[in-house]
Amino acid sequence: MRHAALLVSLSLSALACVPGSEPISDEDTSESEKPFTSAQATLVTFEFDGMLTAPWQSNTTKLIKDQLFYTVGQLNAHHSVGRLDKVVITNVKKEANGDGWMRVSYHAALPVGWGDDDIPETFELTLPRKIGPQSLASFTTSYGPTCSDDPAHVTSGNFWYHFRPATEGCTFDPERVSTAVATVKVSSANTSGKFPEYDKVWEDGALRVVAVFGKYDDYATDPSDAGIRAYNELVDAVGSGLGAGFATSPAELPASPGVSAPDVTFAGQIDGRDVIINALLIDSPKVASAAFDARYGELTKQADIVIYNGHAGLGANVKALASKGKFTKGRYTVFFFNGCDTFAYLDNQLPSRFAALNPDDPSGTKYLDVATNLMPAYFNSMPDASLAFVDALAHPAQPKTYQQIFASVDDEQVVVVTGEEDNVFSPEPEAFDGIDATGALGRGQSKAFETPMLAAGTYEVKLSETKPSAAGDVDLYVGVGYAPTTSTYDFRPYLYGSNESVTVTLAQPSKIFVMLRGYEDAPVAQSKYRLTVD
Question: What is the pLDDT of residue 97?
């Protein structure tokens, strides 16, 4: 399973997060989670029994979801977040208190993208007990200053995003919170070694990219605005790198195009293949103009990848953009919503639109993959994140798995992709005569190995000690389709000494990556090893 250790410094001046709007709720609670690929995170399910109180009303689902929004902040503290639109709520019971209020109990199964080092067996959730505008405003007044990651920016509309109940000095009146101990189980929906559908991307002989950048502040014009600056950096990076020598529209680009040139097209060839990149600068999807909607609609008809870089708007911008655009029957598209916690705000809108368009795709995933973030995204890393996707798709002769693509994106974001479970593209396997290597590693030293593209089948990765026997300690890490690290891997035996092995079964052609690392407290200065892959 995949793990990740991240250290995140939250700065609202640099993050694609908007602190002042209300969360966007979704009443559909019947959907199960989608399969899931990440180079850093693991999809798990939190199951727990919850409870809240509220003035008597019939819409218990909205009350429960309003309470569950407070999982976002506390899970972010563990580099994780839940897929709120996919929570399954059952066994809902409500009882009158006799004073116009009611007590609501329920059972929840919440899909969570878990990005921290170790997956716990249980996790204690702390949630506000009284749910309602006045009650939550009072809760914010009482606990916002001591139980958040950024007290200066906390409001009753965003406290759930900044909520950090484990913060030192944060204590609660037990009557004002509801605690639930969730059991944590790894989902069977995790995948590894999946590729974008390169053959579908290139079936018309061209790669078409739509990269949308939202401003940090709506209606800003100053080049210092973080969103405008990120847009300018992307245009400059394409013109001087990937798209060097491409024709542009407008033909003459200013050094910092910004609001003077908010719609730039690059057109040229890479390795003899046509590539068209459209970069658009807007205020934000939720306030975008009719002119943008029309332009975006025309571009998305033929787009192979659509990238949104900007504020998630606590879900508002994600949902607004998902409702826009026009798509073509049978055309495969990758989306990347590159904003804060976009995994939490993704809903079934895009898959439903693709399913309605394609009778052979009832799940809406055959022609659609969607990448999102578990954590906040920084404006200054957005140009590189966009280019990581574009560069990968622009070189089909050297196809990359999603995990390899994500390795080129700022790892503080913890990027994941859903909808990839039915992807069938796989490169042609290469001849493989096995790996048989010997050597020695000092404490803390590492050495990497990788196979060529292997055919589907079962492979044995075996590490053994060489003379002197039982003297050293080398650790084995294995990744399918991506290079493992000490915190990101698919297999690690966790055994004492250097005798370790794993069996890897490939359902489709893929590379196997191996890292050997000398244990920091190995009993000898140099640990000798032999590695075989057959």
Answer: 86
Instruction: For residue 193, tell me if it sits in a domain.
Output: no
Q: Which residue has the higher pLDDT, 293 or 412?
A: 293
Q: For residue 15, name the pLDDT band (cuts at 50, 70, 90).
A: low
Rg (CA), the chain: 25
> What sections of 380-424 are H helices per DSSP?
382-393, 402-406
Q: Are residues 87 and 209 in the same domain?
A: no
In terms of domains, do 258 and 364 share one?
yes
Strand ranges inside 421-486, DSSP E: 435-442, 446-450, 457-465, 474-480
Helix (H, G, I), strand (E, B) or coil at 373: strand
Beta-carbon contacts of 397 under 8 Å, excluding residues fewer than 6 positions away, are 271
Do 112 and 186 meet the contact criterion of CB atoms below 8 Å apart? Answer: no
Domain that holds residue 260: 198-422
Per-residue pLDDT, averaged over 250-261, amounts to 95
Identify which of 13, 75, 39, 36 has the alpha carbon closest to the alpha carbon of residue 411: 39
Residue 78 dihedral angles phi and psi, to the nearest 5°: -115, 25
Give the pLDDT confidence score for residue 507 in this predicted structure: 82
Q: Is 377 helix (H, G, I), strand (E, B) or coil?
A: coil
Token output for 290: 């009719």
Per DSSP, the residues of 228-256 read HHHHHHHHHHHHHTTTTT-EEESSS--SS
Q: Are residues 172 and 209 in the same domain?
A: no
| Encoded amino acid at 245, one letter | G
Each residue's pLDDT tens digit, 124-149: 999 999 999 999 999 999 999 999 99
pTM beyond cutoff 0.85: no
Return the structure tokens found at 72: 């976002």
Helical pair 382-393 and 226-240, crossing angle rounded to 10 deg? 30
Per DSSP, 315 falls in state G
* Whether residue 392 is found in the same domain as residue 249: yes
Judge whether 477 and 495 are in contact, CB under 8 Å: no
Q: What are phi and psi of 243, to 5 degrees?
A: -105, 25
Cα–Cα distances in Å, from 285 out to 25, 35, 316, 319, 459?
Answer: 18, 27, 8, 9, 47
**Bridge partners of 334?**
305, 369
The whole-angstrom separation of Cα 52 and Cα 103 is 6
Task: Answer yes or no: do 417 and 439 share one domain.
Answer: no
Three-state secondary structure readout of 62-102? HHHHHHHCCHHHHHHCCCCEECHHHCEEEEEEEEECCCCEE
336 and 409 fall within a common domain: yes
Largest interatomic CA distance in the chain: 78
Q: Distance (Å, rounded) from C-alpha 448 to C-alpha 482? A: 11
**Summary mean pLDDT of the chain:** 90
DSSP letter string, 141-174: HHHTTTSBS-GGG--TTTHHHHB-TTSTT----G
Structure tokens at 473: 């300690």
Non-local CB neighbours of 152 within 8 Å, separated by 6+ positions: none
Statement to judge: residues 247 and 347 lie in one domain: yes
Q: How large is the average pLDDT for residues 43-47?
A: 95
